[in-house]
C-alpha cells in the first residue's frame, strides 16, 4: 500500500530553501505535486545531497536551477563557482525543516537526478520571474509524516492554491503539466492564493528561467549572498616525496616568500588581492594593500 506524503511539509521545506537560494527575484514555493521523469528537462543544473533523518534513514534530495544561475556561477568575475556550494545553504535550510542533517551536496548530471532519488518523489517548483528552480523530495522522507502536525512555513512564505495558472494551448510545463493535472491526476497543494507571472504561456526556454545567460549585473546581483571560501597564502615550496615522508615535528620548511613580503588572498583558488598579515584580537588577519587588477577581468 502506498502511504500518503506530507505535502505541507514539502512546501515548508521548499520555502525555507527558497529564502536562501541565489535569485534576483525572491522565490516562492508554488505547490507540491508528484514528480515525473520530465521535470529535469526544464532546468539547466542540479545538485543533490544526502539527508539523514532522526530515525537513522538516509534520503537524497535534489535542487534544480535555471540557466540564469548556472551562467552567473560560470561567468563570475571571481572564476567559475561551484553549483553545489551555492545551493548548500538551501539544502541545509530544507533539512532543518525536515528534522534531518545534510551532507555536502554534489553537482549531478541532469540525466542522473531522478535515479539518484531512488524512487517516487514530490516536486515543489520555486517561482520568481518564472519557474526559476525546484526542489525534489523522495517520498520516503515525506511518507509517514502525513497526518502529523505540519511544519511551519518559512517566514514570509506564501503557498499557492494551484501550482500555476491554467496552461495555454501548446505550452510545455513542468512535469509535462505543472499548470494543471500531472499524468491525469490533480496536483496536490495547500490552501492560499498567489498569482504566478503569465510567462507560463510562453515557450519552455522562456518559462523556465530564460533561454539566455543572465546579464553581468544581474549575475552579480544573483550571487551577492553566496558564501565563498577565502584563503590567505603565506607562500609555497616544492618537496620530493622522500622529503615529505621524512617530515616530523620540529621540521622547518622554507617558503618562496620573504618574511616581510605580502600574503596572497585567494577566492576559489584565484588570486584577487595581496596584503599584510596582522593580528586581530589574538587571531591572524590580513590588511589589504593591493587589489589584483586581473581579478575582475
From TrEMBL:
<keyword id="KW-0282">Flagellum</keyword>
<keyword id="KW-0966">Cell projection</keyword>
<dbReference type="InterPro" id="IPR051469">
    <property type="entry name" value="FliN/MopA/SpaO"/>
</dbReference>
<comment type="similarity">
    <text>Belongs to the FliN/MopA/SpaO family.</text>
</comment>
<keyword id="KW-0145">Chemotaxis</keyword>
<protein>
    <submittedName>
        <fullName>Flagellar motor switch protein FliN</fullName>
    </submittedName>
</protein>
<dbReference type="Pfam" id="PF01052">
    <property type="entry name" value="FliMN_C"/>
</dbReference>
<feature type="region of interest" description="Disordered">
    <location>
        <begin position="152"/>
        <end position="172"/>
    </location>
</feature>
<dbReference type="InterPro" id="IPR001172">
    <property type="entry name" value="FliN_T3SS_HrcQb"/>
</dbReference>
<dbReference type="InterPro" id="IPR001543">
    <property type="entry name" value="FliN-like_C"/>
</dbReference>
<keyword id="KW-0283">Flagellar rotation</keyword>
<dbReference type="GO" id="GO:0003774">
    <property type="term" value="F:cytoskeletal motor activity"/>
</dbReference>
<dbReference type="InterPro" id="IPR036429">
    <property type="entry name" value="SpoA-like_sf"/>
</dbReference>
<keyword id="KW-0969">Cilium</keyword>
<keyword id="KW-0472">Membrane</keyword>
<dbReference type="GO" id="GO:0071973">
    <property type="term" value="P:bacterial-type flagellum-dependent cell motility"/>
</dbReference>
<keyword id="KW-1003">Cell membrane</keyword>
<feature type="domain" description="Flagellar motor switch protein FliN-like C-terminal">
    <location>
        <begin position="223"/>
        <end position="292"/>
    </location>
</feature>
<dbReference type="GO" id="GO:0006935">
    <property type="term" value="P:chemotaxis"/>
</dbReference>
<dbReference type="GO" id="GO:0005886">
    <property type="term" value="C:plasma membrane"/>
</dbReference>
<dbReference type="GO" id="GO:0009425">
    <property type="term" value="C:bacterial-type flagellum basal body"/>
</dbReference>
<dbReference type="InterPro" id="IPR012826">
    <property type="entry name" value="FliN"/>
</dbReference>
Amino acid at each position: 500500500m502506498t502511504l500518503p506524503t506530507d505535502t505541507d511539509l514539502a512546501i515548508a521545506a521548499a520555502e525555507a530553501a527558497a529564502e536562501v537560494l541565489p535569485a534576483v527575484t525572491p522565490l516562492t514555493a508554488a505547490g507540491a505535486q508528484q514528480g515525473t521523469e520530465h521535470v529535469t528537462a526544464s532546468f539547466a543544473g542540479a545538485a543533490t545531497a544526502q539527508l539523514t533523518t532522526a530515525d537513522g534513514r538516509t534520503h537524497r534530495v535534489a535542487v534544480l536551477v535555471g540557466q540564469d544561475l548556472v551562467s552567473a556561477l560560470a561567468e563570475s568575475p571571481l572564476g567559475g563557482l561551484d553549483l553545489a556550494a551555492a545551493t548548500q545553504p538551501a539544502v541545509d535550510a530544507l533539512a532543518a525543516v525536515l528534522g534531518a542533517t545534510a551532507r555536502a551536496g554534489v553537482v549531478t548530471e541532469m540525466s542522473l537526478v531522478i535515479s539518484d532519488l531512488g524512487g517516487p518523489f514530490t516536486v515543489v517548483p520555486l517561482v520568481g520571474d518564472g519557474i526559476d528552480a525546484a526542489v525534489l523530495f523522495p517520498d520516503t522522507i515525506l511518507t509517514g509524516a502525513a497526518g502529523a502536525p505540519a511544519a511551519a512555513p518559512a517566514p514570509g512564505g506564501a503557498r499557492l492554491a494551484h501550482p500555476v495558472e491554467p496552461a495555454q494551448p501548446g505550452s510545455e510545463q513542468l512535469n509535462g503539466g505543472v499548470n494543471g493535472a500531472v499524468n491525469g491526476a490533480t496536483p496536490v497543494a495547500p490552501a492560499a492564493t498567489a498569482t504566478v507571472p503569465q510567462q507560463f504561456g510562453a515557450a519552455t526556454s522562456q518559462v523556465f528561467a530564460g533561454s539566455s545567460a543572465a546579464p553581468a549585473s544581474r549575475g552579480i546581483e544573483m550571487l551577492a549572498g553566496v558564501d565563498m571560501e577565502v584563503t590567505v597564502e603565506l607562500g609555497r615550496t616544492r618537496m620530493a616525496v622522500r622529503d615529505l615522508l621524512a617530515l616530523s615535528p620540529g621540521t622547518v620548511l622554507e617558503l618562496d616568500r620573504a618574511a616581510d613580503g605580502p600574503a596572497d588572498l585567494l577566492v576559489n583558488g584565484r588570486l584577487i588581492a595581496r596584503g599584510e598579515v596582522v593580528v586581530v584580537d589574538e587571531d591572524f588577519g590580513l590588511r589589504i594593500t593591493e587589489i589584483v587588477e586581473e581579478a575582475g577581468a
